[in-house]
Amino acid sequence: MTTLKVKIQTLGESLSAAGKAAAEHGAALSPHVLAFPSWDAMHRVLAPKRLDILKVMAGQGPLTIRELARRVGRDFKGVHTDVDTLLKSGVIDKADGGGIVFPYDRLHFDFDIDAAA
């Protein structure tokens, strides 16, 4: 089972983690990590309706936008717009032979939210 881990961390924290991983294991960060610099940045990409799309795509292989729209019960145009955002953000990929794919079986969110000052 392949899991995409979603984190909220600054660029400096991401670089530090990559350097630490390289020093310990001779490797960079796992390609299965998606890091955002803030909650707002994450929410702009992974808004609730886009998360619904990812849930439907998880473990399914390539799907067309039309099929995604049918599965999430939304209109084609809205799903197309959300898919475009997910593609540009690198969350999903275009599949060989057409369609789009989310190459993971599940999502794991790993972050803390601090109290307001």
The CATH topology annotation of the largest domain reads as Arc Repressor Mutant, subunit A
Head-to-tail CA distance between termini: 39 Å
Level-1 CATH class name of the largest domain: Mainly Alpha
Radius of gyration: 16 Å
Q: How many strands in all?
A: 5
Q: For this structure, what is the CATH homologous superfamily of the largest domain? A: Winged helix-like DNA-binding domain superfamily/Winged helix DNA-binding domain
Mean of pLDDT: 87
- Mind telling me which CATH architecture of the largest domain this is? Orthogonal Bundle
Organism: Rhizobium halophytocola
Pfam families: HVO_A0114 (PF25212)
InterPro entries: WH_DNA-bd_sf (IPR036390)
Protein name: Transcriptional regulator
Summarize the structure.
By secondary structure, the protein is of the alpha/beta class. The protein has helices at about 10-25, 40-45, 50-55, 65-70, 75-90, and strands at about 5-10, 35, 95, 100, 105-110. It has five helices and five strands.
3D structure, described in words:
The chain is of the alpha/beta class. Helix content is 45%, strand content 16%. The protein has 5 helices and 5 strands; from the N terminus they run βαβααααβββ. The protein has a 3-stranded parallel β-sheet. A two-stranded antiparallel ribbon has the order 3-4. Helix 3 crosses helix 4 (65-72).
